[in-house]
Specification:
about 160 residues; alpha+beta; Arc Repressor Mutant, subunit A; two-stranded antiparallel ribbon; 5 strands
């Protein structure tokens, strides 16, 4: 964030209660279907990402991990993040050096993020033209395994606030 906003914003996108439990159960089922395990540390990191209202830095995850009475060493959280990224449950936002839970479902997709430089709000959207880009890469002999687009600007609340 490059600025500080002094106006009201709608609540964040973090999940809680039944919605959080349902999302974790769906992730666990997806892992089982793929022959993977959502171990306790992986599940805890995913829970923290799903509950967060926006992007979370790895060291903030390490600190929050321990709030549940458990301790986590950095490698535990980083390995969990790597797994969650590979399985499509999380994305890394390079420009913020932070992570977010995937909000676009369980099928592989290109990720695009709209990042507000005023309040920090981050929204995942499906980028237009991503299928054509992947097809072009394929025609050139490349296999795209992951694609993330990041756009910085101001959200509607900050523009109008």
């Amino acid at each position: 964030m490059t600025e500080h906003c002094d106006h009201e914003h709608a609540g964040g996108l973090g999940l809680s209660g039944h919605a959080l439990g349902r999302a974790l159960a769906e992730a666990e089922a997806r892992c089982g279907d793929d022959g993977q395990r959502l171990t306790a540390p992986r599940k805890r990191v995913l829970e923290l990402l799903l509950a967060a209202p926006g992007p979370v830095k790895a060291y903030d995850l390490i600190g929050a991990f321990g709030e549940a009475g458990e301790s986590a060493k950095p490698p535990t959280v980083y390995r969990a993040l790597e797994f969650l990224e590979k399985q499509g449950f999380a994305h890394r936002i390079e420009s913020l050096n932070a992570f977010v839970a995937c909000r676009l479902g369980d099928s592989p997709h290109a990720a695009a993020f709209l990042i507000c430089d005023c309040c920090g709000a981050t929204r995942e959207v499906e980028p237009a033209g991503s299928a054509a880009f992947v097809a072009s890469a394929d025609a050139a002999g490349y296999e795209v395994q992951r694609m993330t687009i990041e756009a910085h600007g101001k959200c509607e609340a900050c523009r109008n606030g």
